[in-house]
Amino acid sequence: MTSKERMRRAMSGEKPDRVPLMCQISLGHIYKYANISPEEYWYTSKGMAEGYIRLADRYHFDGILMNVLGINPDIRTRIKSVEKINDGHIITWDNGSKTICPSNDDPRPVEIIPSQNRNPLISEIDIDSIKVIDSPSGLPPYILDIVDYVMEHRGDTLSIHGEIGTVFERFLELIGSLADGLMAMLDDPDKCKKILELMNQEVIAYAHAQCSRGVDAFKLSSPYVGAGFISRDMYEEFILPYERDLVSAVHDNYGIPCYIHTCGAIGDRLDLMLQTGTDGLECLDPPPLGTVDLEQAINNIGDKIFIKGNLDSVNELLGHSPQDVKEIARKRIELGKKAKGFILSSACSVSPLVPSENIDALYDAVEEYGKY
Questions:
Q1: CA dist 113 → 108, 116, 153, 284 (Å)
Q2: pLDDT at residue 142 above 90?
Q3: To 5 degrees, how large is the angle CA 108–CA 132–CA 242?
Q4: Under the phi-then-psi rule, with left for phi > 0, alpha for psi from -120 to 50, and beta for the rest, what region is 91?
Q5: Across residues 245-274, what is the average pLDDT?
Q6: Is the confidence at residue 62, as pLDDT, over 90?
Q7: What are the tens digits of pLDDT across the range 20-38?
Q8: In the predicted model, is pLDDT for residue 113 greater than 80?
Q9: Residue 79: exposure state from Cβ atoms within 10 A (0-12, 13-18, ≥19)
Q10: Half-sphere exposure of 50 (CA within 13 A, CB side)
Q11: Which of 95, 312, 344, 368 has its CA 20 to 30 A from that of 182?
C-alpha cells in the first residue's frame, strides 16, 4: 500500500495496512537536517520544497504538509553575500542590512529596530480601508511554487497537504497583538465579526488556490483558540462560523478532507470544533502541554473524525532516548487504533532541538506496532 493510499484510508475512516506517520516539522528542524544552503532554503521556493521532501524521505513520513506555499523569487536576487560564522551564516543584503541564519532556527535580523507605531484600537479601524483578495486570481504569481514542486515530485506517492492560517490569526495581526485582539472582541464584538467575515474571503481564496492544485487534504491552522485564550462561548461566537465556512468551501468544491490544528488546551471544546464540519483534529496536546487525554478523546469523538497527533513535542520528543520515544509511541498507537482513523504525529511542530534519532523511532514504532 502506498503512503498516499494509507493516509487516504486513515482520513476517511477505512482501515489502512498500518497506522500512518506524518509529523509537522519546524522549518528550523528541516533546515538543520536537509543540507541545503541558507540562501537556497530560506529564500527560494525550490530550496524550501526540497527541504520538505528530503525530511519526509528521511523520516519515512506518509505525507508532507506545506505551511509555506511559495517564496517571492525577487528576494534571492537581493542577497549580496553569505558569510559562514560559528553556528550558522550571515547574509548581507543589497541595502547593507544583515540577517543571521542560525544552523537550526529561522533567520533573524542582526539589528532589530523597535517599531514606533502604536497598535490601533478597534474603534480606530476603518473597515472600508481593509483590502482583501477574494479570488485566487488576485494572489501573487509565485504563491504556489512550493506546492507545485512538491506535487510534481511526490504527489503520486505521498499524501500532500495544503495549509492556511485561519481568519482569527489574521484578525490578531490586524489589531497588532493578542491581548489587544481579545480586548477588541469585548469592546466591539459586532465590528469584530464584520472584520472577520470580510477577511475570511481572503483565507478562502488561498484555500481555493491550493486545493485546485490537487492536494490530498487541507489543514486549518488555528493556534490561538484554545482555552488558554478564549472561552467556549467566545469560540462559538467568533471562531466557529468562519472556520465552518472555510471547511464548507473546501468540501463543496473539492471533496477532500479538512483538519484543524489548535495547540494547547482544547479538551473542553472538542465538540464545538466538530461543529465546523472538520474531518479531523490535529495536536490534541496531552498534559502538561495541553489538556487532551487521548483515550478520553477517542471515547468522545473517535468514531466521528480522524485524529492526528498527541505526542508532546516538548516533554516526550525532547529529553528522551529513542527507545523511550518508541515506547511512548507504542502506547499512543495502541489507543489510536481504536479511533475511526489515527495518524501518529507530534502534537505540534518538531523542534530543531529534537534529535533525528527520536523521529526515526516513530517509524520503527508504526512498523512494529501499527499493523491493523
A1: 12, 9, 40, 37
A2: yes
A3: 95
A4: beta
A5: 96
A6: yes
A7: 999 999 999 999 999 999 9
A8: no
A9: middle
A10: 15
A11: 312
Q: Quick one: fold of 3-76+123-369?
A: TIM Barrel (3.20.20)
The sign of the torsion formed by the CA atoms of 263, 335, 22, 151 equals negative
Q: What is the DSSP string of 210-263?
A: HHTTT-SEEEEE-TT-STTTS-HHHIIIIIHHHHHHHHHHHHHHH---EEEEE-
N- to C-terminal Cα distance for the chain?
13
pTM: 0.95
Are the beta carbons of 134 and 205 closer than 8 angstroms?
yes
- Rounded to a whole number, what is the largest CA-CA distance in the chain? 58
Do 304 and 339 meet the contact criterion of CB atoms below 8 Å apart?
no
The confidence score (pLDDT) of residue 195 equals 97
Tens-place pLDDT, residues 289-318: 899 999 999 999 999 999 999 999 999 999
In angstroms, the CA 186 to CA 188 distance is 6
Cell numbers for 277:
464540519
Strand partners of residue 21: 344
Here the cell at position 160 is 500532500
The Cβ of residue 117 has, within 10 Å, a number of other Cβ atoms equal to: 7
> Residue 84: beta bridge partners?
89
Asked if 363 and 32 touch (Cβ cutoff 8 Å), the reply is no
Cell numbers placing 339? 479511533
The percent of residues above 70 in pLDDT, for the chain, comes to 100
Grid coordinates given for 31:
533546515
- Give the residue carrying C-alpha cell 483538519: 259
Residue ranges per structural domain of the chain: 3-76+123-369
**Residue 140 Rama label (left phi>0; alpha psi -120 to 50; beta):** beta
> Per-residue DSSP letters for 51-106?
HHHHHHHHHT-SEEE-S-----HHHHHTEEEEEEETTEEEEEETTS-EEEEETTS-
User: What band does 116 get if pLDDT is binned at 50, 70 and 90?
Assistant: confident
Partnered with residue 280 across adjacent β-strands are 259, 306
Q: Would you tell me how many other CB atoms lie within 10 Å of the CB of residue 314?
A: 16
Specify whether the CB–CB gap between 98 and 82 falls below 8 A. no
Check residue 259 and give left, alpha or beta (phi > 0: left; psi -120 to 50: alpha).
beta
Indicate the helix (H) or strand (E) that contains 341.
strand 341-346
